[in-house]
Amino acid sequence: MNPCPRCHAPLDAGEYEGVAVETCGRCGGRWLDPPDLKAIIDSAAAPAGGPPVRTGLDLTGAQDDAPCPPCGTPLDPFNYAGDSGVILDKCHRCGGLWLDAGDLDRVLAAVAASDQDLGRDIKRFSADLHEAEVRQDALAQRDTRPITDALSSAIANEIADSDTNP
């Protein structure tokens, strides 16, 4: 059994939402692979009872020298999704992820908040996007309209006649 990178207790094989994870019974941390975290996120239902709350930056327990449970390589802390404020640890050798107690809930809240922000942005910018599409369509139609005046038609015919490439 792999040891916990925080408290060195043996990790227990378990399951979260149908996904296999290793959990520390002492500190509550979890070890899993990135595809498993994605599967948990994808299967998570949106939290009931109001909008999700973004969490603040919590560096409790973040260590630069915590060892990877399977291979012993030092784990590197990183900010999940770049700016969520949820610090996870990753092994760059085997790719596994360590989530301290409560990190999974914070990741799920950050994802739900991001999804909510995306929906709000779609509503906010849809009129602007529609207007841009209408402008693009008008430009495309203007470019494909047939030439109707005599001078333009004569120039177009002259160019077409002199073009050596069929």
Keywords for this entry:
166 residues, alpha+beta, 6-stranded antiparallel β-sheet, 39% helix, elongated
Short description:
The chain has helices at residues 34-43, 103-144, 150-162, and strands at 11-16, 19-24, 30-32, 76-79, 87-90, 97-99. It is α+β, with helices and mostly antiparallel strands and 166 residues long. It has one domain (1-166).
What would you note in describing this structure?
By secondary structure, the protein is α+β, with helices and mostly antiparallel strands. Helix content is 39%, strand content 16%. The protein has one domain. The protein is built from three helices and six strands, in the order E-E-E-H-E-E-E-H-H. A six-stranded antiparallel beta sheet has the order 1-2-3-6-5-4, with helices on one face. Strand 5 and strand 6 (97-99) form a beta hairpin.
Which SSEs are present, and which pair or pack?
Elements: E1 11-16, E2 19-24, E3 30-32, H1 34-43, E4 76-79, E5 87-90, E6 97-99, H2 103-144, H3 150-162
Antiparallel strand pairs: 1-2, 2-3, 3-6, 4-5, 5-6
Number of folding domains? Answer: 1
| Total count of strands | 6
| Estimated structural class | alpha+beta
Radius of gyration: 28 Å
